[in-house]
TrEMBL record:
It is a multi-pass membrane protein. SUPFAM superfamilies: ABC transporter transmembrane region, P-loop containing nucleoside triphosphate hydrolases. It comes from Candidatus Desantisbacteria bacterium CG_4_8_14_3_um_filter_40_12. InterPro entries: AAA+_ATPase (IPR003593), ABC1_TM_dom (IPR011527), ABC1_TM_sf (IPR036640), ABC_transporter-like_ATP-bd (IPR003439), ABC_transporter-like_CS (IPR017871), P-loop_NTPase (IPR027417), Type_1_exporter (IPR039421). Its main location: membrane. This is ABC transporter ATP-binding protein. Residues 379-612 form the ABC transporter domain. It is found in: Cell membrane.
């Protein structure tokens, strides 16, 4: 009932208010014992606040008027004890509420971060990085004041308000009725300010997301900004968004600062009216001076919760706006989900596929070295189509990749090559059709076990802050140093790493900015190889390498490629001549399949691409 009354007082839509508050309460109620102690302390503080005006009445009427020194000492002693109890209770509830508040923010940030990591690639491609950062950091921080300060107000203020009103009616009911005339004016002021504040707060949070996004984009692309002398352009863009944020925040500040004084002014006007009428009653001996002073003290005590409600209204309006953005993010559904009955990929049996296919090759299967990686690596695309934002990207792909086969995908940019390989680890799910690994639909296995089988060197190298060793070991955190070095040697990265100041412990900076493009790519290759995956996907894996490094890595890769199923995407056709088969993809369709020699003989798209490329080189 208290919450239902509160949403009317604070000018909220009932559905939004109750839904948001109930969700926030779930986080707070995880600390029931601490919350109970805090509430008890808040009630003690409230009780102490109501005690002081009564002591003033006793001080004036019983001690000072009668010149009773003993009574004076008793009242002052009680007042001191009440003050100590109030101070201790105030400290206790403040500390507990701060602790609970920070724990709730801690949990919320973790939940948002974890949810973001599980959301689909489409979501991340369609979302702005700065927007997501703003929701994770800025919006969550807005909730802090509500939990720490607002919660105490919502618990303490009604208790003081109701208790104080009862007492002033007990002291003089006519004066109390007079004060009630002022209450609707205060309520109207709070409601109107609250409505506007919620709108402004939502706009402020959106604008902060815009500012954060520009900041993130500019810093991450600072090299391009400098190369194109665009510092002025970016500064102007940031200035305009920041100015918009500044003006919106000023609007919010105006509402915040006017709320308290306006309520106070209305309250003072009412209090002066009470003083006038109270003085009239005292002059006619219908009210004692001590009772009037006590009444005024209680009136001041009651006015404080009303002012607190006014400020709490601002905090809650801000928190509701921020919470809606947070819960909107948390409610974003996963478009790539595990089936309820999903099984581990390690349940797939058999490694004989490579032996049967390779015959004379001495291999022990396409999955080596680590327990659980026993997938043979046969990949089947059956009528696979994919649509992105209503645009067909893949159209009815039918393709089987045999265990241990090295298959290359070539074709014009935008033809769907990267999208096709992205479907294998389920970064996306096909719009139609089925993908199988060793005759098992990949939607029937757990994502973790599926992705554990797959190693990818992406088109755009992504590294993380930390050392070179930690970046290589990112795919296999329990790898030994010997395994890390072995992977680096295969990727032709060991030599340049050992010449760095701290070798494998050298920090690479954010996104590997301290390394060259070729060095970053070799680290990415080593990272994929360390995993010893059953399926290896190389998406332009050697595009940033010089010719000598590319030849060395190509030789090393082809020595190990038949130890797993390997898919290569390449624009430089010289890198895939030795592939077992080459698939040419154009506009989402497979247009030809064959070996390098077969495709050259057929005179199709592959031959035209090959001739254009080598004519350009010539």
């Amino acid at each position: 009932m208290h919450l239902l009354w509160l949403h009317r007082w604070l000018a909220f839509d009932k559905g939004i208010f109750m839904t948001t508050i109930s969700r926030l309460l779930k986080y707070v109620l995880g600390y029931k014992l601490l919350l109970f102690i805090a509430i008890c302390c808040i009630l003690i503080v409230s009780g102490c606040s109501l005690t002081f005006p009564w002591l003033i009445k006793g001080l004036l009427e019983d001690a000072l008027n009668k010149r009773d020194l003993f009574q004076l000492n008793i009242i002052l002693g009680i007042a001191l004890m009440v003050a100590i109890i109030q101070a201790v209770s105030q400290y206790t509830h403040s500390f507990i509420m701060n602790y609970i508040g920070q724990r709730v923010l801690f949990v919320l940030r973790n939940q948002i971060f974890e949810h973001l990591t599980h959301l689909s690639m489409k979501f991340h491609k369609d979302s702005r990085c700065g927007e997501l950062i703003s929701r994770t950091i800025n919006d969550v921080n807005v909730l802090q004041n509500l939990i720490i300060s607002g919660a105490a107000v919502l618990i303490k203020s009604p208790f003081i308000l109701i208790g104080g009103i009862c007492i002033i009616f007990y002291i003089h009911w006519k004066l109390a009725l007079l004060t009630m005339v002022i209450a609707p004016l205060i309520a109207v002021a709070i409601v109107q300010i609250g409505k506007r504040m919620r709108q402004i707060t939502h706009q402020i949070q959106e604008k902060m997301a815009d500012v954060t996004n520009i900041l993130q984009e500019t810093i991450s692309g600072i090299a391009i900004v400098k190369l194109f002398c665009a510092e002025g352009i970016e500064s102007k863009r940031f200035f305009e968004e920041n100015k918009g944020y500044f003006h919106l925040y000023l609007k919010g500040i105006k509402l915040m600062v006017i709320s308290g004084p306006l309520v106070w002014l209305i309250g003072i006007a009412g209090m002066l009216l009470v003083v006038w009428y109270g003085g009239y009653e005292v002059s006619h001996e219908r009210l004692t001076a001590g009772a009037l002073m006590s009444f005024m003290a209680y009136l001041l005590t009651v006015s404080r919760p009303i002012q607190d409600f006014s400020q709490a209204n601002i905090l809650i309006q801000q928190a509701i706006a921020a919470s809606q953005r947070i819960f909107e993010l948390l409610d974003t559904r996963l478009t790539v989900e595990e089936a309820i009955d999903a099984e581990e990929m390690s349940d797939v049996k058999g490694t004989e596929g490579i032996k049967e296919r390779e015959g004379e090759r001495e291999t022990e299967g396409n999955i080596e070295g680590r327990e659980g990686r026993i997938s043979r690596g046969r990949i089947e695309f059956e009528g696979v189509s994919f649509v992105y934002d209503d645009k067909p990207v893949l159209c009815g792909i039918n393709l089987t990749i045999e265990p241990g086969e090295v298959l290359a995908l070539v074709g014009p940019s935008g033809g769907g090559k990267t999208t096709l390989v992205s479907l294998i680890p389920r970064l996306y799910d096909p719009t139609a059709g089925t993908i199988k690994i060793d005759e098992r639909d990949i939607r029937g296995v757990t994502l973790k076990s599926l992705r554990r089988q797959i190693g990818i060197v992406p088109q755009h190298t992504i590294l993380f802050s930390g050392s070179i060793a930690s970046n290589i070991a990112y795919s296999q955190p329990d790898a030994s140093m010997e395994e890390i070095i072995e992977a680096a040697m295969t990727a032709n990265a060991h030599n340049f790493i050992t010449h760095l100041p701290s070798g494998y412990d050298t920090p690479i900076g954010e996104h590997g900015v301290r390394l060259s493009g070729g060095e970053r790519q070799r680290i990415a290759i080593a990272r994929a190889l360390l995993k010893k995956p059953g399926i290896l996907i190389l998406d332009e894996a050697t595009a940033s390498l010089d010719t000598e490094s590319e030849n060395l890595i190509q030789s090393a890769l082809f020595r190990i490629m038949h130890q797993q199923t390997t898919i290569i995407i390449a624009h430089r056709l010289s890198t895939i001549i030795r592939a077992d088969r080459i698939v040419t993809i154009s506009e989402g369709n497979i247009v030809e399949i064959g070996t390098h020699d077969e495709l050259l003989s057929s005179g199709g798209l592959y031959k035209r691409l090959y001739e254009v490329q080598f004519e350009a080189i010539g």
